[in-house]
Design brief:
The complex is a heterodimer. Chain A is built from 9 helices and 21 strands. Chain A is of the alpha+beta class. Chain A folds into 2 domains: 220 residues, 3-Layer(aba) Sandwich (Rossmann fold); 110 residues, no CATH class. In chain A, the strands form 4 sheets. In chain A, strands 7-8-9-3-10-11 form a 6-stranded mixed beta sheet, with helices on both faces. The two termini of chain A are 34 Å apart. The longest helix of chain B is centred in the N-terminal third of the chain and has 29 residues. Classes of the chains: A alpha+beta, B mainly alpha.
Chain lengths: 344, 224
Amino acid sequence: MSLYVDIDKTLGSFHLQVQFEAQNGLLSLLGASGCGKSVTLKCIAGIERPDRGKIVLNGTTLFDSDLHIDVPPQKRRVGYLFQQYALFPNMTVRQNIRCGVRDKDNADAAIDDIIRKMHLVGLEQQRPSQLSGGQQQRTALARILVNEPEVLLLDEPFSALDSHLRFQLEREMLETVRRFGKPVLMVSHDRDEAFRLSDSIAVLNHGRIEVIGPKHTVFADPKTCTASILTGCKNNSPLQKLDERTVLATDWGMRLTLGQDVGDATFIGIRMHDLRYGDGENSFRCRLVEEIENPFSFTLMLRPVDKPDSVPIGWETDKETWNALRADELTVNLPKEHLLLLKD
Amino acid sequence: MDLYPLWNSLRIAGISTVIIFFVGIFAAYYIAKAPRIVKGVLDVVLTLPLVLPPTVVGYLLLRVLGPKRIIGAWVLAVFGIKLTMTWWSAIFATTVVIFPLMYRTARGAFEAFDETLAWSGKTLGLSNSFIFWRIRMPACREGIMAGTVLAFARALGEYGATSMIAGYTPGRTATISTTVYQLWRTDNDALAFRWVLVNVAISAVVLLAVNFLEKRKTPRKGAS
């Protein structure tokens, strides 16, 4: 089963142009706010209408501008979990779920079944406003799943929750998604959440998909500067090519040897935890600019001793290491296998 | 005390409120979704009766409904019915005057409605009429009820346009407000005062109802 999307839509000065195919499993659309993630979901659900393009779900065309096909949202069989869950406030949990049942003749059995599966027993007569955030999410999911959708769209499903609830609900969501067994699209701006839940990741920037692929590939080689930032790489610098295997990272004032050809890359990145203490290739004597304490680690902002005007580079290390080390000047190296070559 | 004016006022206000309930909601629903320019223009036109002096509304109504005017003459020729100077003529006046009240409060309620509720309803396969009557209207209930009560109260107090289009005929077109004026004009101060008390009592009840409805208005958006 698959979902194929190829759409264009202009909204004022914003232009959305995305093309991708989602298979069974979870594909995350990762992007900053306003990059077009939510509009993409709305177009798939039929809430927004693309200017041009094609949306095909399991061989059924939902939208085709050339053939003038535009299936109404009621008939698309797209399950849409809204950010705030969109439970009907005037109805109880049970009545909300009943709204999702298509075959009204056997409604009660289906409702009882999903209420049990989604751990909502005992809450049937409650109104949404009486539920906790997690219960609201489970109710919304129950209402969607009982509707028997062919694809599931999750719009920042954890953003309305307190952070201590997220972990638990993420586990539950993963279980739900696995049981669902059909394509799931999740919009997110949280790289950790996206990584933990997804099979594949697509990075959206200014209405376009910059990178798409299996999650490990995208995190190991983000390919673009935006993807690098969105996947959590905080050290990114423009580069100046010296030769195929040597570049100058202009922000940091560091001359670096690469493990691969520079090609047409214009930026270089390295994750903060990928820097190493001590001598080696690409090592620099650095001065400590700032020490930032995190709950379980330190982030140390460093600058080469001979480049007092450069932008500091961050090194994240565990507390034990840094507590033993504690120095105003130290040598770190940037292992070439961890250098990310990026395009703008 | 002849209670005809009370009965007449109540039926005029009641009928015009029922009419405006549907017309106002219909207008509010479609205009809330309209493009900004259309909305701006229609808003001015439809709100005008709220700020125009009632005599101006009465004058404009007579310009079209009078027996020698375009609509009035046509109805008279085809159906033999005169549109002015009957008890129900006042309904023309009250509906026009109270329309903006209903329209504006209903539109405010519709605009505050969380549209994702309607979207989720659609993706679940619910029909548009189910979404409107079972989801949108209940969510906007307080606002719409407050608008309805306000419109009823205003219709009850309508004087200017009513007196022009329905006149004052005791036992036929007399309403509370036109009766008070007539009684005062003819120096029947005691009776005028009684009618004033009746009017104050009804209005107070209505305003209490509005306050009660407004207090129950709770934020309905999403749920967190």
